[in-house]
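Field reference: sequence -> structure
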Amino acid sequence: MIFYFPRTFGQDEAKESLRQALGQNRFPHALLLHGESGLGQHALLMDLAHILSCDADAEARPCGHCASCRAFKNRSLDTLHYLLPLLKKDKKEERETEKDDDESLESAQIEEMTERIRILHENPYAFARREKAQASVGQVRHLLSRLRYAENHRARLVLVPYLEALNDAAANALLKALEEPPAGVYFLIASEHRAALLPTLLSRCLHLGLAPLPAEEFHRAAAAMSLRAEKPFSARLLPFAEGSPGAYLQLLEQDGETLLEEASRFLSAATAEDWRVFAEYAEQRPDVKDAEATLLLLNFLLRCLRLQRVLRVRHPGPSGGRADGYRWTANALKAESLDPSLSGTLGPLEDVPDVTIFAAYLEAAIRAVQGYCNPRNALLGLFLEYEAKVRRAVTT
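Structure field:
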């Protein structure tokens, strides 16, 4: 039997392990795919669900022609179930008391689930958890009740794209199902934060980790992502995606080229200890609505810092900093076959007095902007604190 994974880029080792389990009829009742965001967990879940739901007597699966394959394509397969993180009900948030075991969904949540399922099927690399979205215990109980009264002679599949999105009550309810799974039910689970999961949940699953794609495979995946998103391919964004097709797609959607320009300006200001540039930026972000744009930039700055660290490890040696025109960064980029024009963005990191302090500053800034209604004050206060820490570190 031949098993195909048409949605998933790369991940050959994981695919081979899955082919062996499928071919030898020893596929686990609960499989956990884990790795960094965008590596292909959701694409692989969809490929597995398609394979397991195909009921054709053929040499290759999925066949794409049987009734189950057609239903899978149309998102109408009645043996395929979803446990998706949803935003809280507006009405519940207004109540002083609420019952956590309520299994009903508001119309807005039903619409949200329909849209999320559509994205998961059409482009699993674009599927991402929305901020504050969770899967409730009510959803788990409703799911289990449906599984209990469904037909037992057909394989039933449960997709859980974000296991970390289950609240404590929901996680405990799912744990009971994993300890005594209903006959013929397969739980296909993914996580981006395995370390945050309950050990008891982890112990009930077979784990399969995904890794960043090698350069050639990643380049092909990024080209396909650009075509699918109808956006120009950007070689300059490739190194910041760190081998993750989903991360590259996200950078495209976030206008990564503009982020590159803003990052260059900010890093130059940070290394020159010119907090006025931060003040100017903060003045342009006075409202809560603009916090998202601030977070995009701060997260991109962290990507810049990680890339610079990788270059440091692979190409150790002295750097002259600004006085040398960031020649070391340009040479390191050239040695890695990366666009040397990125030295304009990464070069200022040669002048960072203490990389650890700067990384801590960026992480603190992200938390502050997420937690405060005024990004301006958060950015200004944290940068001034960062500046003071650097001065203390340099003098000691």
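Note: The beta strands are 2-3, 30-34, 60-61, 80-82, 156-160, 185-191, 206-209.
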